[in-house]
Amino acid sequence: MTTACVGGGVLQWWTSGNMNTRKRIELNGCRSRGFLVGTTPIAKLTKNASLLMGPRTGRKMRKTFPVSPVMEWQDCSAKIEADVPASFAYDCYSDRESIPNWMSFISSVNVLEDKPDQSRWLLKYSVLGRDVEFSWMARNLQPIRNQKIHWRSLEGLPNRGAVRFFPKDSSSCKVELTVSYEIPQILSPVATALKPACERVLFLGLEKFAAYAKDSYQSKVA
């Protein structure tokens, strides 16, 4: 009878002949017990071995190690003037779960109840007719009240960013958004070519933010 273990299953079949030899073989560095029935090999295979080529010849298998690509940060930025006080613009942007109202490519932002400085982000957009989706966990770093909100991803899509608020007068301000994402250095030329499109998306988002903040402010003071 011939027996083989493949992928955790056991296959058995009968052959003619008597068991006349018995030996041990090794596959992928793991020892397995094998038998020979006549001229037909019977072997237990490891889960990693799909084909028994024969007994070891004494040659050592060459080890391979994964190579991590060299990474670099790519920055994209945009700025706009908003007809609201800097303090009000700051408060609006501090409400992270409202960000999808002006950043259309952000599908959702969920702040963790037990860790309010952390939030899970979901980004969706279409490329060449295909839907692309990314998610990441981010942590808000120590803000500067009415001046700066900044964050960095903890897991998922590597990114970091900051929103800065510059008062112009008592009723208006300038808002500047910078987003950085980490990519393999080999893709740097592609990222550079796409930078204008990325910054255009950020600018359109800030335009919506300025309108959103103005409507919210007018509703508040009315």
Describe the overall structure.
The chain is of the alpha+beta class and 222 residues long. The protein has 2 domains: 42 residues, no CATH class; 151 residues, 2-Layer Sandwich (Alpha-D-Glucose-1,6-Bisphosphate, Chain A, domain 4). Helices cover 19% and strands 46% of the residues. It is built from 2 helices and 12 strands; from the N terminus they run ββββββαββββββα. The strands form 3 sheets. The protein has a 7-stranded antiparallel beta sheet with strand order 6-12-11-10-9-8-7, with helices on one face. Strands 3-4-5 form a 3-stranded antiparallel beta sheet, with no helix packed on it. A hairpin with a 2-residue loop joins strand 3 and strand 4. Helix 1 packs across helix 2. The radius of gyration is 30 Å and the shape is elongated. This is Coenzyme Q-binding protein COQ10 START domain-containing protein. InterPro entries: COQ10_START (IPR005031), ORF3 (IPR047137), START-like_dom_sf (IPR023393).
The quaternary organization reads as single chain
Distance between the termini: 90 Å
Order of helices and strands: EEEEEEHEEEEEEH
Q: If you consult CATH, what is the topology of the largest domain? A: Alpha-D-Glucose-1,6-Bisphosphate, Chain A, domain 4
3D shape: elongated
Class from helix and strand fractions = alpha+beta
The CATH homologous superfamily of the largest domain is named: START domain
- The beta-strand count equals 12
How many domain modules? 2
Mean pLDDT rating = 79
Helicity range: 10-25%
Integer-rounded radius of gyration: 30 Å
Strand content: over 45%
Q: Name the strands of the widest sheet in spatial order.
A: 6-12-11-10-9-8-7
Report the top-level CATH class of the largest domain.
Answer: Alpha Beta
Largest sheet report: 7 strands, antiparallel
- Supply the CATH architecture of the largest domain: 2-Layer Sandwich
Total DSSP helices: 2
